[in-house]
């Protein structure tokens, strides 16, 4: 059911990219932004990356609360603040995040705010011209000239950063880097394998290099993606399409698993990151680990997928099987650090930007993304 907003007070009218119904092409529409609530801010968006999650919203794979205001990997400048805002000020350059920790839930109280179960969002809805309430993607909605968010969704970073680069930390790039550093806990000298070398997997490779991994194995079916993975730090590559009869149900006998072991002294990798999120790739990640190794799932599976691994193997191989939510990041800790490393040329964040597009080119960017031709298309405003 489409909701109608009753509050007619409007601070801004901007252009934004919306999805009206499942699978239909996105469109530009007039977005009405209300005056900020006490802890809300309006951010003028300068750049926003095109993420698989936006496509999932458009296609109804996350929720059916249409219409959506898409976009969430964004950076911009704070334009207006609510009366109780203390976290940011007008003029601050910020990266938006969807983990505005509450400080009060059970995860926060036990000192694990990266798992916050009650993150903050704006207190008022944005709407279409007729009052129809919009659902902002991941509580952000940044394929727009401006958006309304909670102050905690804004993380100040060095204003010298390119908005198109910094904004990518808002989701996919942070998910990959965090899967390696935060969830995987990669240490200097360890071996790492990454299955799937799209944007998230490539970011995991960059994260593994940053953490000091000695052997970094990239696994994909595309030679082009594997070549890109080498540019970001992979020391070895495996094209699983070229291996005869690759079959994850074979477990230890799967050709991908055997090849990973060959590249790691016969033992398997200390950390294996599944950036695909399918049962087949997860089983490969499970068996490609060394004994007591860590498997990290950062690729998002579909609701219908099932996993079948002998429980005795789960027990006998030990180690840890982890899921990585948003790279287990804390935006206030991780965003400024990674932006600084980028500005110091110690982390090639700028290389994730494959193309810069206009706000009216998001639908075409979805097609480019599905074809596997980019790490990230970025809308610039």
UniProtKB/TrEMBL annotation:
Residues 23-379 form the Enoyl reductase (ER) domain. One of its GO terms (molecular function) is S-(hydroxymethyl)glutathione dehydrogenase [NAD(P)+] activity. GO terms for biological process: formaldehyde catabolic process. Its cofactor is Zn(2+). Keywords: Metal-binding, NAD, Oxidoreductase, Zinc. Pfam families: ADH_N (PF08240), ADH_zinc_N (PF00107). Coiled coil: none annotated. GO terms for cellular component: cytosol. InterPro entries: ADH-like_C, ADH-like_N, ADH_Zn_CS, ER, GroES-like_sf, MycoS_dep_FDH, NAD(P)-bd_dom_sf. Belongs to the zinc-containing alcohol dehydrogenase family. NCBIfam families: mycoS_dep_FDH. This is Alcohol dehydrogenase. It comes from Corynebacterium lactis RW2-5. The lineage of its organism: Bacteria, Bacillati, Actinomycetota, Actinomycetes, Mycobacteriales.
